[in-house]
């Protein structure tokens, strides 16, 4: 690909820990891959390729039908299924249970991403993808000043009524957040300009919380996220003139490491794996914490077998023998 933008090369695992412990930014989200050459392809895109579905209209019909089929049959097994109009809620459930979707699982933590990269690695170099979530979101939903969701209902917006008279509105008191996020999602898919849409799950469970989960939605299936490595391939923002204006104004409030860099690839060397997993366990990032259930404990036992690192209980018990 053209001019690949990568993170500065890290020489050791200690370099990685220092870099991301000291320079973490809430504007970035991360995804770990067990192989350095894996692309950022959604499960939906892979399913289309396997089924030989290439036409855009045929893909829309197939995706729509798949969502409908899943909703119909999943309701038999879900105690509290999402509302039928809650597209984000249904896509999250589909993603959780392995159905093909246009969502990808990302995380707010580079260390959680490193864990998932190394747990999937099998003797080869792994990698972490880092995405500038704030910039991508603003490319799709151009808002001049970012503001948090108004839970108190006290943040006012000044406007005019139909007669031109001054009007003060409290918009978030009239809207449900799930409806706003769903409309944002649908509008991004309808626009289909290629910019990925980062979304925080609204229905957190224990696993999502542990993994600091973020969804990234592909708004155009034919446009792989890898293409964002090449600035020449960037899709046009929803409102280009406002996008440039707002990025200029927001540099002071939301400084970017490199103003127009949206995607980085961070190389994780295979030789770092054992040290990395040991460090991450000390941080509380391990199989049983990332998958907080008995299933996670079973996975932890499977990963532990043959590694040679005695658990604390063995070390303590050995003192009395």
What attributes does this structure have?
41% helix, alpha+beta, 3-stranded antiparallel sheet, 321 residues
In short:
The chain has one domain.
Give a structural overview:
With 321 residues, this protein is α+β, with helices and mostly antiparallel strands. It has a three-stranded antiparallel sheet with strand order 1-3-8. The radius of gyration is 22 Å and the shape is globular. It has 13 helices and eight strands. The protein has helices spanning 13-22, 43-51, 56-74, 87-96, 110-120, 133-140, 177-191, 206-211, 240-250, 273-282, 287-290, 294-304, 312-318; strands at residues 28-33, 103-107, 126-132, 157-160, 166-169, 197-199, 213-217, 263-268.
One letter per element, helices H and strands E, the order comes to: HEHHHEHEHEEHEHEHEHHHH
Can you list the strand order of the major beta sheet?
1-3-8
- Please indicate the percent range of residues in DSSP E strands (runs of 2 or more): 5-15%
Number of domains: 1
- Low-confidence spans: 1-5, 251-260
Largest sheet: 3 strands, antiparallel
- What is the first-to-last residue Cα distance? 60 Å
Number of DSSP strands?
A: 8
Mean pLDDT value:
81
Structural class label = alpha+beta
Helix content: 40-55%
The DSSP helix count reads 13
Tell me the Rg in angstroms: 22 Å
Shape: globular
């Amino acid at each position: 690909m053209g001019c690949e933008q990568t993170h500065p090369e890290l020489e050791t695992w200690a370099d990685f820990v220092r870099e991301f412990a000291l320079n973490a930014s809430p504007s970035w989200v991360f995804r770990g891959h067990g192989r350095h050459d894996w692309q950022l392809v959604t499960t939906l895109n892979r399913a289309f390729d396997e089924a030989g579905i290439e036409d855009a209209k045929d893909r829309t019909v197939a995706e729509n039908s798949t969502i409908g089929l899943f909703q119909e049959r999943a309701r038999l097994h879900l105690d509290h299924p999402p509302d039928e109009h809650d597209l984000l809620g249904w896509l999250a459930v589909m993603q959780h249970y392995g159905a093909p979707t246009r969502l990808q699982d990302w995380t707010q933590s580079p260390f959680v991403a490193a864990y998932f990269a190394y747990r999937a690695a099998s003797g080869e170099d792994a990698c972490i993808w880092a995405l500038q979530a704030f910039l991508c979101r603003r490319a799709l939903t151009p808002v001049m000043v970012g503001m948090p969701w108004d839970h108190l209902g006290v943040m006012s917006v000044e406007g005019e009524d139909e007669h031109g008279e001054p009007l003060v509105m409290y918009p978030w008191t009239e809207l449900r957040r799930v409806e706003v996020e769903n409309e944002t999602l649908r509008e991004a898919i309808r626009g289909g300009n290629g910019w990925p849409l980062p979304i925080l799950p609204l229905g957190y469970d224990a696993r999502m919380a542990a993994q600091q989960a973020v969804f990234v939605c592909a708004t155009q299936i034919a446009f792989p996220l890898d293409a964002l490595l090449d600035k020449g391939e960037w899709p046009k923002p929803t409102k280009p003139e406002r996008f440039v204006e707002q990025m200029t104004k927001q540099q002071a409030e939301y400084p970017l490491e490199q103003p127009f860099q949206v995607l980085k690839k961070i190389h994780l060397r295979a030789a770092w794996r054992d040290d990395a997993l040991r460090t991450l366990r000390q941080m509380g990032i391990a199989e049983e914490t990332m998958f907080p259930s008995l299933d996670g404990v079973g996975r932890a036992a499977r990963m532990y077998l043959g590694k040679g690192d005695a658990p604390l209980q063995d070390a303590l018990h050995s003192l009395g023998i």
